[in-house]
Amino acid sequence: MKKKTSNSSSLTFLSLVLSMSMGLFSGIVLADSEKRNNFINMMVDEYKFDRPDLVKKLDGVVVNKKVISFMQKPSTSKPWHEFKKLFLSNNRTDQGVLFWKKNQHWLEKAYKVYGISPEIVVSIIGVETIYGARVGSFRVIESLYTLGFEGKRRRAFFTNELKEFLILCRDNKLDTEEVKGSFAGAMGMPQFMPSSYRAYAVDFDEDGRVDLWNSVGDVIGSVANYLKVHGWIREGKIVMPATLLNSEAFKLTKLGVKPHIKVAELRKKGVIFSRSVDNSEKSALFAMQGVGKREYWVSLKNFYVITRYNRSLNYALVVYQLAERIKKNYSG
Known about the structure:
This protein is α+β, with helices and mostly antiparallel strands. The chain has 16 helices and seven strands.
C-alpha cells in the first residue's frame, strides 16, 4: 500500500515538472492556468470562438518580459519638467504644423462634426506616435496576453483588452499574429486600445472600413469622436496657470482634476487665475513638479476630457502645450 502511494506521488511530481516545463516554452504560467482556461471558456461560450483554434492561438504566445519592464517604468511617470522636454520640441511642433496643412480637410470636417479644435487632434497624434512615425513594434496579442496573465497590476483591464482585441480582429479580418502596437497594446496612429477602437473609431473617410493605421481621415475622425463622446465642450477653455496665496488653496490640489468646484470658490480660497474665466464654471486645481518649484494649474472640463484619453496629468498637460505651440506656428 505504501509503495503504491510512493509511485503515485512520484507520478504526480513528474507531471508537475512536465507541466512547468511545457509552460516555460509556451509562455503559460502554471499559476495562471485556471484564469487562462476561464478566459478561453468565456470566449467560446459568450463570443462563439472556436476552442481548438483559440487554444492554438494562445499556446503560440510567449510572455514578453520587456513588456512588463516597460509597464513598470512608463515615460509618464517622469517629473513634469523632464517629461515635457520629450515632446515640446521644435521638430515635433513643425511636423504638427505640416500635418495640419496636409490634412486640413479632415481636421475641418472633424471640427464641424465633433467640435474639436484642429490643434488638439493634431497634438494628440503628435504625442502618441509623432504623426504616425512610431506606431509600435510589439505584437499586440503578446503584450495583452503578458499583461493580462503575467502583469503586476491591472490584470483584469488587460485581460478584457485581450478579449476586445480578439473580437476586433475577427470582426475586421485582421491577423492577430501580425497586428503591432505599443507595449501596452495600443494601436495605430492614435494609439487606441482595442476596446476604444471598437467603441469610438469611425469610418470618417467613408470607404467602408475603419483603419487607424493607414487612413488619416479615420484617425482624425476617431480622435475627435473619442473626445466628443467623453464630453468635450466646443470652444471651451482647457487649462490655465494659477498662483496660490495660501495653504488653504494648496489643499485643493489633492482633490483630483475632475472639475468639482466653481471658479468663484477657488478665487475665495486664494487662487489667482492667469486668464479670465467665468465664475460659475466648474474647475479643479492641481500641481506639477517644475524645476525646483511647483507649478499650479486650474483644470476645466476639456482638460479632464483629455485625461480620459490618457489618465496621466503629464500627458494631458503636454498635449495642451504642444497644441498651443502648433496653433501659434500654424497661424503665425
